[in-house]
Write a structure and sequence with these properties.
The protein is an alpha/beta fold and about 160 residues long. The strands form two sheets. Strands 5-4-3-7-6 form a five-stranded mixed beta sheet.
């Protein structure tokens, strides 16, 4: 597995989720399996099949989180404010619509468009990284267009 870039906050969230899955969710699924077995023949038992599928999902999620924690590389949130990097919060101007937008560049694990957390591997993240205040960047859109942004500030 490659490096997983995380903020301290993102790392703590993963640890909380892992603890929940291992301590509570596993028990919950085990109880569902136990109850489903009591229904009789497991070869035609939909509840049992569903519980076993959930168990597989939970165990895979636990493994995925453990791998992310093992391969975590912490984002230096105190790094230079002169150049956009992972961990930067960037205010940009959408040149076409004259609209200011704020984005935080994070690793793929923490990316969340609803919270304006953009992955360092997303087209916008890639385009922003390495640039400075007042730089103008072009970002290709999925439909083949280009969006032009001017970097207003970097925090």
């Amino acid at each position: 597995m490659k490096e997983v870039f995380l903020t301290k906050e993102g790392y703590e969230e993963l640890k909380v989720k892992l603890d929940y899955l291992m301590s509570e969710k596993r028990k919950e699924v085990a109880e569902k399996i136990k109850i489903a077995r009591e229904f009789g023949d497991i070869s035609e038992n939909a509840e049992y099949d569903a519980a076993k599928e959930e168990q597989v999902f939970v165990e895979q999620e636990i493994k995925d989180i453990e791998d992310k924690i093992i391969h975590a590389v912490f984002i230096d949130e105190q790094s230079s404010k002169k150049v956009v990097s992972i961990g930067s919060t960037v205010k940009v101007l959408d040149v076409e619509f004259n609209e200011e937008l704020d984005f935080r560049i994070v690793g793929t694990t923490e990316a969340n468009a609803a919270e304006n957390k953009i992955s360092n591997e997303a087209p916008l993240g890639i385009a922003l990284i390495g640039h400075k205040k007042n730089d103008i960047i072009d970002v290709a859109t999925p439909n083949g267009g280009i969006v032009e942004y001017k970097i207003i500030s970097i925090q």
